[in-house]
């Protein structure tokens, strides 16, 4: 069964001290740094990675996606990244082994009820570092 790791982008940034500090200085560069790190993880593991950010309708300068890149998504102005994560999991958890990395307990409880596997951001970094 194909493995998918869905990452709550802002949860990953704001619960990782170095990324949180960098974000306060240059948010776009920090988002790109996380994308680069997760792309490397995808390239060296058997996971497909989906990174989801709260978009709030902003114009963001993330480069266009290439086939080898992770999938980066931004929520619409009237929705949250949490809602996007929950919708994706509800639709795909039966077809794929879906794991969700977030520090939002409500999101993790909700995705568990759909059959996905919850993990904290710390556990995600431990998984990444284990490769």
Distance between the termini: 20 Å
CATH fold node name: Rossmann fold
Unreliable sequence segments = none
Q: Strand-residue fraction?
A: 15-25%
Biggest sheet layout = 5 strands, parallel
Radius of gyration: 14 Å
Number of helices: 6
Total separate domains: 1
SSE ordering: EHHHEEHEHEH
| Molecular shape | globular
| Largest sheet: spatial strand order | 3-2-1-4-5
Write the CATH homologous superfamily: 5'-nuclease
Helical fraction equals: 40-55%
CATH class: Alpha Beta
What structural category characterises the helix and strand content? alpha/beta
Topology, number of strands: 5
Mean pLDDT: 92
Secondary-structure arrangement, i.e. CATH architecture: 3-Layer(aba) Sandwich
Q: Can you offer a commentary on this structure?
A:
This protein has 131 residues and is α/β, with parallel strands linked by helices. It contains six helices and five strands. It has one domain (3-129): 5'-nuclease (Rossmann fold, 3-Layer(aba) Sandwich). It is 47% helix and 19% strand. The protein has a five-stranded parallel sheet with strand order 3-2-1-4-5, sandwiched between helices. Helix 2 packs across helix 3.
């Amino acid at each position: 069964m194909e493995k998918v790791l869905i990452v709550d982008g802002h949860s990953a940034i704001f619960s990782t001290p170095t990324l949180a500090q960098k974000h306060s200085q240059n948010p776009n560069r920090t988002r790109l740094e996380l994308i680069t790190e997760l792309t490397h993880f995808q390239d060296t593991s058997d996971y497909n990675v989906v990174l989801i950010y709260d978009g709030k309708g902003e114009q963001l300068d993330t480069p266009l996606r290439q086939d080898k890149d992770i999938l980066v998504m931004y929520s619409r102005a009237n929705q949250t990244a949490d809602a996007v994560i929950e919708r994706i999991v509800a639709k795909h958890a039966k077809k794929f082994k879906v794991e969700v990395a977030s520090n939002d307990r409500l999101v993790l409880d909700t995705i568990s009820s759909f059959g996905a596997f919850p993990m904290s951001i710390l556990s995600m970094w431990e998984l990444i570092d284990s490769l």
